[in-house]
Write a structure and sequence with these properties.
Elements lengths: L2 E2 H8 L2 E3 L5 E2 L1 E2 L9 E5 L15 E5 L11 E5 L2 H18 L3 E2 L4 E2 L4 E2 L4 E2 L4 E2 L4 E2 L4 E2 L4 E2 L4 E2 L4 E2 L4 E2 L4 E2 L4 E2 L4 E4 L4 E3 L5 E3 L5 E4 L4 E2 L4 E3 L5 E4 L4 E2 L4 E2 L4 E2 L4 E2 L4 E2 L4 E2 L4 E2 L4 E2 L4 E2 L4 E2 L4 E2 L8 E4 L2 E3 H12 L1 H18 L1
């Protein structure tokens, strides 16, 4: 699919500087630009590339003024980075829109209902009483269990598994290998040292505009629901345990683990490999640095680091001393020797 500079400028509400009929059919980084591609310049660090890029069109900020000759056609916009992101979204949606229909072999229950522009990849399974909205794309080798509800504009990438009773809202993306609704880790210890499994009869509720990364697992509740609120973004390989609740627009990086019944507030930013103990309450707007261990409740607006985590400012000050411990110990030893001699 080809677009001219003039067409793209209309989409982005930008201004063409150069050839309005320049055509592109792919996207690229500015340093890797080739004929037929569109790139962008937002970071001044990359400005040198605009004078030698082969990209046919380049998005730039309105404030950009060339200091030399350029061969690429410019489209000036308010924010080149955000505009390029908008183009990526448009490009991605255009590719997905071409996917329609049910590929074979696949198994679809006669009681399942789905809306317009539905795509189901081959070797997939749709269980009984599943309800699927409009413009849903489910890629090959996926599993959707009984009584699952998928809203509009949901994308489920290859190999994802969505267990029974799960509810997923509109505009969600579930990446490959994600498992949603598996049993929570619930076992009761017996006097003889064995364990009895506690039935996990709850479900998972995922609200609108949530992204679930590849290989991420979200367990169903023991009773009630594990809830991922609107706008949450989960990276790859994250473990969310039973009865956890994650607040709106919280972002969590890879390899983080959240133990059962912990409640995380809204607008939190959580680094990679953070570990949360169970039954905690984490406030809103909390920032947690990578590899921190959280074992107590956290108030709103705190910034934490460490394992166990403590205040970020205190940690930064203390870390200077952590690094100097050998030197400090040597100085203490010398001081002790001096005191001992003087006595």
């Amino acid at each position: 699919m080809k677009f001219t500079a003039e067409q793209i400028a209309k989409i982005l509400e930008g201004e063409v500087v150069g050839n309005p009929n320049a055509e592109v059919w792919t996207l690229s980084k500015i340093e890797e630009g080739a004929e037929g591609s569109i790139a962008f310049l937002a970071n001044p660090k990359y400005e040198s590339y605009i004078y030698k890029t082969k990209a046919s069109i380049t998005l730039v900020n309105n404030s950009f003024v060339p200091e030399g000759e350029i061969s690429t056609t410019l489209i000036k916009v308010d924010d080149a980075y955000l505009s390029f992101t908008k183009l990526l979204t448009f490009y991605d949606e255009a590719k997905k829109a071409s996917k329609v229909g049910i590929e074979q072999p696949s198994t679809v229950s006669t009681t399942a209902k789905f809306g317009e522009n539905f795509y189901l990849g081959s070797f997939s399974y749709i269980g009984s009483n599943v309800q699927i909205g409009n413009n849903v794309k489910i890629y090959p080798n996926s599993f959707v269990g009984d009584n699952v509800v998928l809203g509009n504009n949901v994308t489920v990438f290859a190999g994802a598994k969505i267990y029974s009773e799960t509810q997923i809202g509109n505009d969600c993306v579930i990446h490959s290998g994600a498992i949603i609704g598996a049993d929570g880790f619930g076992f009761a210890p017996n006097t003889d040292g064995t364990y009895t499994k506690i039935p996990q009869i709850g479900n998972v509720i995922i609200e609108d505009a949530v992204d679930i990364g590849a290989g991420t697992t979200i367990d169903r509740a023991t009773m009630g629901s594990t809830i991922i609120r609107k706008g949450v973004k989960l990276d790859n390989q994250i473990q969310i345990a039973h009865n956890v609740e994650i607040g709106e627009n919280t972002v969590i990086a890879a390899q983080t683990g959240v133990a059962g019944s912990t409640k995380i507030g809204k607008n939190c930013v959580i680094g990679g490999q953070v570990g949360f103990a169970g039954h905690l309450v984490i406030g809103n707007n909390v920032r947690i640095q990578a590899q921190s261990g959280i074992g107590k409740n956290i108030k709103d607006n705190e910034v934490l680091q460490g394992s166990p985590a403590f205040g970020y400012t205190d940690y930064s000050k203390s870390y200077v001393h952590f690094r100097n411990l050998p030197k400090i110990i040597n100085e203490l030893d010398e001081l002790k020797k001096t005191i001992h001699k003087n006595n």
